[in-house]
Amino acid sequence: MKKSTLGIGIAVLAVILLFYGCSKIDIEDTAQVSAPEPQSFVYTDTAQTFHIKGLPPKDWEAQPPANDQSPFIFTAPKNNGGTFKDNINIIRFAYEFPGEKDMTIDDYVVSATDGMETRKDFKLISQTKRDIAGYPAIVTTFQTTEYNNGTLLQFSQAIFKTEDEAYFITFSATPEGATTNEQVYTAFLDSLVIE
User: Fold this and answer.
1) CATH number of this structure's domain 37-194
2) Contact 141, 159 (CB under 8 A)
3) Which PROSITE patterns match (predicted)?
4) How would you classify residue 6: left for phi > 0, otherwise alpha for psi between -120 and 50, otherwise beta?
């Protein structure tokens, strides 16, 4: 049997065992086996105006689209003992108003978050710049009791603009969930690709 055929056979066996709940597979010669690709999501709207893909958080569940603007919502596998499930959602906005397309990311975020501080018990935690999918982005993290029957929730909202639209990638969590899943959100942002 050729080495490449053997390697493919081992990879297939590893994937089969993974689906049956095995968490560890001992293989002597790991140089011939490549790790399976993480499961990714891809979304293209019916008008073919945008295409986004990335790696959803491990063990998080994809929910049905809330509407045409929000094609993906991923929820955490557990709810940290309360009724709220930590989640990440993606919302896309086509430019509707004159000048939106030409705004800098800084000006766009100021416009998009205008009035945020009026939310009940609002507290700004941080605002940082980073790149997402090759575009400049700003991530605003804040807490409020405005939602979920007054429960204190923490939101990290990443906003970035492409040539044709703006994206809001929001991580919503309890403060405990935010601490637990902050790296999950960062890895999710790192995985995004816009085509």
Assistant:
1) 3.40.1000.10
2) no
3) PROKAR_LIPOPROTEIN (PS51257)
4) alpha
CB 93 within 8 A of CB 69: yes
Region class of 99: left (phi > 0), else alpha (psi between -120 and 50), else beta: left
pLDDT of residue 24: 36
The domain spans of the chain are 1-36, 37-194
- Tokens 């999501």 locate to 41
The answer to whether residues 96 and 86 touch, using CB atoms and an 8 Å cutoff, is no
Strand stretches in 83-149, DSSP E: 87-94, 123-132, 135-144
pTM for the full predicted model: 0.73
Question: With contact defined as beta carbons under 8 Å apart, do 86 and 172 qualify?
Answer: yes
CA distance 176 to 162: 33
The single-letter code of the amino acid at 98 is P
pLDDT of residue 3: 40
CB-count exposure of residue 160 (10 Å: 0-12, 13-18, 19+):
buried
Within the chain, residue ranges assigned H as helices are: 3-19, 105-112, 175-191
* Residue type present at position 179: T
